[in-house]
Q: What sequence folds into this?
């Protein structure tokens, strides 16, 4: 059973607008959350993370929000650029199995000019 | 530049062949992982290792085995390749105790079994 869920397989946004990617989780023991970005024929690359003791973390155009009571996190990209077009994976860790991450199925973001 | 290197970008193998996928990391990381990525299914964990000669099954270990004889190298073995093992295989590594940055992934091996 999936413990990390990304319910939107795809998202299309105009350049310059905000992209919001969502992620839900079921395991209340998760205490670290990460977002990865993946281009075709490449491995995923780390984008941004957040600890469960925080509710927001920013890095340039990327902001991750965490709502622990709802078991929900989101990634905001402002402003969106065509180079942001990729698959975005949400991941979570409970720290118990030596750093193992649990991944969602990914959301394909397309940013059009 | 630190990296995880997978030996092949593309492989084509025949059904029944024994297949070796190699992964090497130069970051002195303790943990190493093998995932496969399939459309609509995301990243699924096959095996992982937290130390030399140690291995743990992930969520889909059937049909696979692994070997970790040296800290920097983690090999995935398909004992008898089947067409349902056609996939993108991703190797990753991470240091013990560092969780803010997660894994470093290799570029992947696209395996086709015919």
A:
């Amino acid at each position: 059973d999936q413990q990390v869920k990304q319910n939107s397989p795809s998202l299309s946004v105009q350049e310059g607008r905000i992209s919001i990617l969502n992620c839900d989780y079921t395991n209340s023991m998760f205490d670290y959350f990460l977002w990865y970005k993946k281009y075709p024929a490449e491995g995923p690359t780390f984008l941004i993370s957040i600890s469960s003791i925080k509710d927001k973390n920013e890095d340039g155009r990327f902001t991750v929000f965490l709502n622990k009571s709802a078991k929900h996190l989101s990634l905001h990209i402002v402003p969106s650029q065509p180079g942001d077009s990729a698959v975005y994976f949400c991941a979570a860790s409970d720290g118990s199995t030596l750093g193992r991450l649990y991944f969602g199925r990914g959301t394909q973001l397309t940013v059009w000019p | 530049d630190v990296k995880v290197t997978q030996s092949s970008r593309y492989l084509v193998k025949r059904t029944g062949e024994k297949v070796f996928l190699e992964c090497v990391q130069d970051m002195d990381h303790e943990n190493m992982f093998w995932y496969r990525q399939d459309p609509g299914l995301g990243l699924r964990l096959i095996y992982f290792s937290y130390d030399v000669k140690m291995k743990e099954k992930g969520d889909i270990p059937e049909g696979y085995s692994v070997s970790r004889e040296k800290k920097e190298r983690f090999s995935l073995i398909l004992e008898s390749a089947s067409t349902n093992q056609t996939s993108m295989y991703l190797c990753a590594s991470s240091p013990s105790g560092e969780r803010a940055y997660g894994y470093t992934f290799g570029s992947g091996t696209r395996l086709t079994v015919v």
Summary: Chain B is about 0% helix and 50% strand.
